[in-house]
Amino acid sequence: MASFFDEIGRNRLKSIALLAAFFLLFTAIIFIFTLFLGLNIFGLVIAAVLVALYAMFAYFMGGQMVLKISGAQKADPKKYHYLYDIVEGMALASQVKTPDIYIINDPNPNAFATGRDRKHASIAVTTGLLSMMDKRELQGVIAHEMSHVADNDIKFMLIAVVFAGVIGLIAAMFRGLFWFGGLGSGRGRGGGIVILIALAIGLLAPLFALLLRLAISRRREYMADANGGRITRDPQSLAGALQKIKDYMSSPKAQPVARANETTASLYFSSPLRASSIVNLFSTHPPIDERIKRLKQMY
C-alpha cells in the first residue's frame, strides 16, 4: 500500500512534467509561427505584451471572477459557524491563512478553492454538500480543498489555463491566415508544407492544450485527495464523501451545478457537469471509483 507522502510525491512530479509539456508545446508553436510567417521583432513584442496583460488580469482578478460566475455569496459566520470552525481547523493544520468562505445555493454536493495564493484564497461550498455530509466527511472535503490552497494548486492551474488560452489564440490566428490567404509569404519558403503545418497547428494545438490541461487537473486531484487524507488522518471519511457524491450523481434526482461551466469545472471537488460519455472522456477529474480505491488503500 502507498503512504500519503508516496502518493503526494508521485503526483507532484507528474504534474510538473505535464506543465513542462505545456511550455514545450507553447514554445514550439511560437517558433513555427515566427519561422514560417515572418513576424518581425515588433510583432513578437506586441504579442508578448498582450499575453502578459492577459496573464496579469487572470492572476489578480481570476478568483473573484470565478466566485461571481459561480453565484457564490459570503457565508454568514453566525449561520455557518460550524463550517467556519472546520475551515479554520483545516487551515491551521495546513499552516495557511484561513481562506474567505463562500456558499453556493445549489443542491449538487460540491466545493472548490480559488484565489491567487495562500494569502488571497477563498473556499466555496454548495448547500447540497453541507446538507449531505456528516462532520468527518465535510472535514475531508475541506481538507482536500485546503490542500489546493497550501500546495499553490490555484496558481498552478491558472498557469495551465493561461497557456491553453494563448495556444488557442495562436491556433486561431493560423486558421485565419490559412482561410484568408495570409500564408502567402510562407508559401515561397515551403509551399504546401507551410500550409499543412499551419493547418495542423490550427486544428490540433487546441486539442493538445486541452488534453494537457485535463491531465494536469486529474493529477492535482489525486494529490489533493492524498494530502487531504494526510491532514485529517482519516482518508476513509474522504472516501465516504466521494461515495455519497457518486450515489447522488447516479440517482434520478441528480443535477449538475447550475452555474458551473467547462472553464470553472476543473476547480470543483468533483465534476460539476452532467455525466456523459463525451464529458467523461474530457473530464477534468479522475474517475470517482479510482479516487475512492486509492484513498481506501492509504494508511
Tell me about this structure.
The protein is of the alpha+beta class and 299 residues long. It has one domain. The chain is 68% helix and 7% strand. It contains eleven helices and four strands, in the order ααβαβββαααααααα. The protein has helices spanning 4-37, 41-69, 81-94, 127-132, 135-150, 153-179, 184-190, 192-232, 235-249, 277-281, 288-297; strands spanning 73-74, 100-104, 111-117, 120-126. A hairpin with a 2-residue loop joins strand 3 and strand 4. The longest helix is centred in the last third of the chain and has 41 residues, at 192-232. It is elongated and about 60 Å long. The mean pLDDT is 81.
**Secondary-structure-derived class:** alpha+beta
Q: Count the DSSP helices.
A: 11
Strand content: 5-15%
| Distance from first to last alpha carbon | 8 Å
Strand order of the largest sheet: 1-2-4-3
* Poorly predicted runs: none
Helix content: 55-70%
| Basic shape | elongated
How many structural domains does the protein architecture include? 1
Oligomer: single chain
Instruction: Indicate the mean pLDDT.
Output: 81
- Gyration radius, rounded: 21 Å
Q: What's the story with the biggest beta sheet?
A: 4 strands, mixed
The secondary-structure element order is: HHEHEEEHHHHHHHH
Q: Strand tally, please?
A: 4
Short note summarizing the structure:
With 299 residues, the protein is α+β, with helices and mostly antiparallel strands. The chain has helices at residues 4-37, 41-69, 81-94, 127-132, 135-150, 153-179, 184-190, 192-232, 235-249, 277-281, 288-297, and strands at 73-74, 100-104, 111-117, 120-126. A hairpin with a 2-residue loop joins strand 3 (111-117) and strand 4.
